[in-house]
Amino acid sequence: MRFGKSLKARLAMSYLIIIIVTLVITDIALASVLRSYFNNNVRDTLYNQLSVSTDTYERYYSDATLEQNVANDEDAFWRQSNAMVQIISTEKIVLLDSRGNRPQGVLDADDVSTALEGSNGSMIYTEPSTGEKLMAVSRPLTVNNEIVGVLRFITSLRGVDESMRLIVTNFIMFGIVVIIFSTIFSNILGMRFIRPIDKLTKTAEIMATGNYNVVSVKMHEDEIGKLSDTLNHMASEIKKKEELKNDFISSVSHELRTPLTSIKGWAVTIKDPSTDRELLEQGLDIISNESDRLKSMVDELLDFSKFVSGKITLEKQEIDIRELFDFIRNHMENRAFRENKTLIVEKEEDMGTVYADLNRVKQVFINLLDNSFKFTKEGGEISVRMKRTRNWTDFIVEDDGEGISVSDIHKVKEKFYKGKTSNSSNGIGLSICDEIAIIHGGELIIESEVSQGTKITFRLPQGA
């Protein structure tokens, strides 16, 4: 198992680290509490024995001085305890201990100082010569409420240490057992979490090969389940985009083939020496028109490529809206006449200006009006008008043509999307118009109803 590579291993290690840290902290806390408990028991026992000894002294030996009592009946001080006993004067001089020794010098111990101040004192220390841990407790000896010395009991904490070693050993053994079971449990739990991720990874790997028909099976309603749904949705969207792209390529190929076929056919006809003048001129006109059509499609594809790559730049200027509407009318009225459709361009005396890229704005109008003419039947009406609000300038292109279905209206601005009617083209016209609106800081709003017509608002910000 390589902990740096496997998510399951890292998950198991995380559980183990948490458990080990918890065990260590718990064991240290319990050991500290137990040691404190044992020490307090030893201290309380010594205090009880001290209390009996000092009470006995005050009751039966208070008539003589401490030194006299030590000389006359020294064992009276340690009859109540098995601990080592020290009898200490008020000058902190050890008068005698239960071993019969008289240590030289002043005994400067904290518990003795506390006892000479009138309180019980205690301390734990290590005997320098043996390294043994000892506990000393001291209590003042009083006669007529006057401190005449200190009685000190000293006992070894060897028993406490042995008990603590046994307890710590048991804690360690218990911890090892817990860690072993935790390791097994962590791996089992890790497998439970990792299994859906493994399946998700395998599904993603299959999708990476280009097979978007595979479906990720959601195992639980959790974050991984949500990720599974997201992966399926992503695959579905990629599949749709692939289908749209293939339809787009097929459509573009067909549309490019049509003018090329016409150009090729008329080139062969013109090459024939027997072709008369009238037919020659007709062929040249068709070749010219088809070449223009071919150029328009290629220009549109190049524009689309620029928008997709983010390399499009704008050359903004103040555009006189009245002049723009004149251009629209002049450019499209011949087509309206040929197709027997009504084109209404609503102009006013003072229409103001808008700050935008003139060529791109014209491109939007030409695309929108081209769609309106395509989807409006003979005798239909197409209108262009302007409406100003406080922050926006809206250019509205409206027709009473076929309209757009509810299922299509949210898709028509998508790249490569081609409508279901025979008039639908390569699926990038409205996408380009939408991109132009966006990079100007505006938007393209489409409202439509089947058989009732379509209204498209090309919205630009004031002072854009």
* CATH H-level superfamily of the largest domain: PAS domain
When the domains are counted, the total is 3
Mean pLDDT: 81
Rg to the nearest angstrom?
50 Å
CATH topology of the largest domain: Beta-Lactamase
| Strands, total number | 12
Instruction: Strand order, main sheet: write it out.
Output: 2-1-5-4-3
**Biggest sheet layout:** 5 strands, antiparallel
CATH class of the largest domain: Alpha Beta
Question: Which parts are unreliable, with pLDDT below 50 for 5 consecutive residues or more?
Answer: none
Distance between the termini: 61 Å
* Count of helical stretches: 10
Which secondary structure elements does this structure contain, and how are they paired or packed?
Layout: H1 7-60, H2 66-73, E1 84-89, E2 94-97, H3 110-116, E3 121-126, E4 133-143, E5 146-156, H4 158-208, H5 223-271, H6 277-309, E6 316-320, H7 321-338, E7 342-345, E8 353-357, H8 358-375, E9 381-388, E10 392-399, H9 406-409, H10 429-439, E11 443-449, E12 453-461
Parallel strand pairs: 7-9
Antiparallel strand pairs: 1-2, 1-5, 3-4, 4-5, 6-8, 9-10, 10-12, 11-12
Helix pairs in contact: 1-4, 4-5, 5-6, 6-10, 7-8, 8-10
